[in-house]
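Backbone description:
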Amino acid sequence: MLDWAYPPLIIANAAAAVGMDVSIFFTFYGLNIIHKDHARKLKIDPVGNPAMPMPVPIPDIISSLPGMVPMASAMMRSRFAKKNVATIGELLASAREAEVRLVACQMTVDVFGYAADDFIDGVEFAGAAASMARARNAHVTMFIQRGDPMFDITEDQLVDARDLMCPMPVMPATKARRRLQSRQILKILATDRGSLSDIPAWAEANGDELLGSGEDGGVYVFYVRKADQE
């Protein structure tokens, strides 16, 4: 996500500016930051991160509509530009000029099917053990993550069941499920605490796979993959 790409690069540039020897280890979705196509891959999702302050308040019912991610991303980039905040590309260029080591997790690169030339110039590749060996001797270490990587799963349909009480969240989920093809993914948003048990039980009863669940800003998020059709 665009908003979580800034902290490691800002901190790294500041540390390098005061003479520190700096390296950043990028793993899983952090690889998007150093990907050549980072301008397209890094976005703002007002649903996935409802706590993100937007330039213009977006009602919950609007934020889940198709096309809101590109719009929200453009709005935030415009705000950054007006405040003279450096772009991710500029921060990366500054980091490389300051000899900040940008290290990609080799395991994640392989799992995601990336190649070395998918990344910007100067990126190194190493495993977690090599990164930890370097961190062990460092004066300062930080771990920055967006949150549960679950929230970067791409859904095929979204059900916004926020403010609906039991048993209502499973009703629109059931309707949406009928429209899905086999192996497609349904994302469900709910605020009813009963959904913490209802949605997993509903998925199991249908023979579907619960890919992940969690809480983000008081909203319960579920990802369900529809079972193969017989």
